Amino acid sequence: MGTVHFASDHAAVALRLELVERAEALGWNVVDYGPETNDSIDYPDQAQKLAQGMLGASEDLGVLVCGTGIGMSMAANRFDHLRAAAVSDLFSAAATRAHNNANVLCMGARTVGPGLAAEILTTFLATSFEGGRHQRRLDKFPAGLIRGDTHD
Ligand code: RB5
Question: How far is the CA of 70 from the centre of ligand 1 (A)?
Answer without folding.
Answer: 8
